[in-house]
Amino acid sequence: MIQATIRRSHDKGILSFEMTGHANFAEHGQDLVCAGVTAVVFGAVNAVIVLAGFEPLLDIGEDGGYFYFEFPESLDPEARQKAQLLIEGMIVSLETIERDYKDNLRVTTNII
Predict the structure, then answer these.
(1) Which residues are responsible for catalysis?
(2) Active-site choice (33, 34, 94, 97)
């Protein structure tokens, strides 16, 4: 199962998100859940880089079972606002996938 964990603060919105695990919906190379989650996450992160104009802190696992995104501490408020909206859109898409594939994807939010 892919576990998506979103970290939020009370006042700054999304701080980071982490993806761990594998969907195990189908064999490697044919796993539609994995492909969907990957497309949503990479699309959102690429949109943040291009449209919000900054490089987030990223850690991408070598075997494909790990992805970490974090907003930098010092970030222009306008860039943060754009990126927050893009990542919120990513979360909505992940939750939509989760609705149909509960055994393969779990999205949780931690407020700190």
Answers:
(1) 22, 34
(2) 34
With a CB cutoff of 8 Å and minimum separation 6, the contacts of 55 are: 49, 72
Q: What confidence tier does 70 reach under pLDDT thresholds 50, 70, 90?
A: very high
Cα–Cα dist 46/1, whole Å: 24
- Domain positions in the chain are 2-68+78-111
pLDDT, mean over the chain:
96
34 catalytic per annotation: yes
- CATH 3.30.70.1490: does it fit domain 2-68+78-111? yes
How far is it, in rounded angstroms, from Cα 92 to Cα 79? 20
